[in-house]
Amino acid sequence: MTTANAQRRIVVTGVGASPGFDLARSLQRLGHHVIVTDAQPLASGLLLPDTTPRVTPRADDPRYPAAMLELCRETHADALIVGIEPDLLPALRMRRTLATAGVRVWLPSANSVQACLDKASFQRVLAEHEVPTPRSWLPDQLDQVPTGLELVVKPRRGHGAQNVHFPTTPEQARVLCELVPEPLVQERLHGEEFTADCLVDRAGTASVVLRRRSLVKAGLAAVSVTFHDEQVAELVRRTLAVVGAAGLCCVQGFVTDRGSEPVVITEVNVRVAGGFALTEAAGADLVGQCVNGLFGLPVNHDRLAYRSGVFLTKYTETLAIGDVTTHRAFQEQA
């Protein structure tokens, strides 16, 4: 019989990045055994104590699906949670195969995932449903950009603030479009940036935890503070409904200090956010309720209430230094 407090064996991918690393630790605190995976043999999360570490091929490697399926079978995994964007589509394609092997995955539809991964598609979907989002142009549409508008050039399918640039002239934007992979040009927003940590249950009901991104480094909130604002929360819920979100996800946007829209949504990530530890510190049982939903149990939204004014500060530290040969031998023996 499935129970809320049963110990599970859960695979977490991409543990070299902050979301996956912190997710593995949160699952451990809840009493689950975590199989931590990454394509980088020296990834930080593979050193987490009391886990089962495994190195996998990259998600774009043709060997990835078979390797992940074999890993799940070998480790007797009960479920798989994706920690980074590149693993989303392979996991989505493998859902039925994994289910046959007894491995649960909780993700939205393929259309929802694609809309969130492609920023140009995301902007179109939100604009069609009148959800405020930055105006966007593809490189061949730059002649349509209003004069004097501040811009951002970024990859359509990028993540982690990689290859994001802020040109000061249209000419610079054109040059950057030659350098940035699959570029998208957007208007630059000003104001207070926020992240909403969200859990959408199987009936579509969403809990939303808001936190200000007071200091952002390399796309991650280095300093963050929780807050309540029903106008922001309601727009986040509308956004989740529009894109068909399901399970654990996060929404980013701005409370603006310029322009006609007081709140603007910039993106939805179909994974846990890098700063979700703050949400849990503020009282929301985010990962615990995600595990409930993952295993077909009711999500208790009362357990996702939170306190405002709780802060998080992150910094980079040296986790390990050692002989690479010894480290690789450890990974092979684990």
Q: Any overview of this molecule?
A:
With 334 residues, this protein is of the alpha+beta class. The chain has three domains: 9-105, Rossmann fold (3-Layer(aba) Sandwich); 135-187; 190-313, D-amino Acid Aminotransferase, Chain A, domain 1 (2-Layer Sandwich), CATH 3.30.470.20. 31% of the residues lie in helices and 24% in strands. It is built from eleven helices and 13 strands. The strands form three sheets. A six-stranded antiparallel β-sheet has the order 12-11-8-9-10-13. A four-stranded parallel β-sheet has the order 3-2-1-4, covered by helices on one side. Strands 5-7-6 form a three-stranded antiparallel β-sheet, with helices on both faces. The mean pLDDT is 92.
For the largest beta-sheet, the strand count, sense and barrel status come to: 6 strands, antiparallel
Detail the poorly predicted runs. Answer: none
CATH class of the largest domain: Alpha Beta
**CATH T-level topology of the largest domain:** D-amino Acid Aminotransferase, Chain A, domain 1
User: What's the total helix number?
Assistant: 11
Number of domains: 3
How many runs of DSSP E, i.e. beta strands? Answer: 13
- State the end-to-end distance: 31 Å
Mean of the pLDDT scores?
A: 92
Alpha carbon gyration radius: 20 Å
Query: How would you describe the shape?
Result: globular
CATH architecture of the largest domain: 2-Layer Sandwich
The fraction of residues in strands falls at 15-25%
CATH superfamily of the largest domain: ATP-grasp fold, B domain
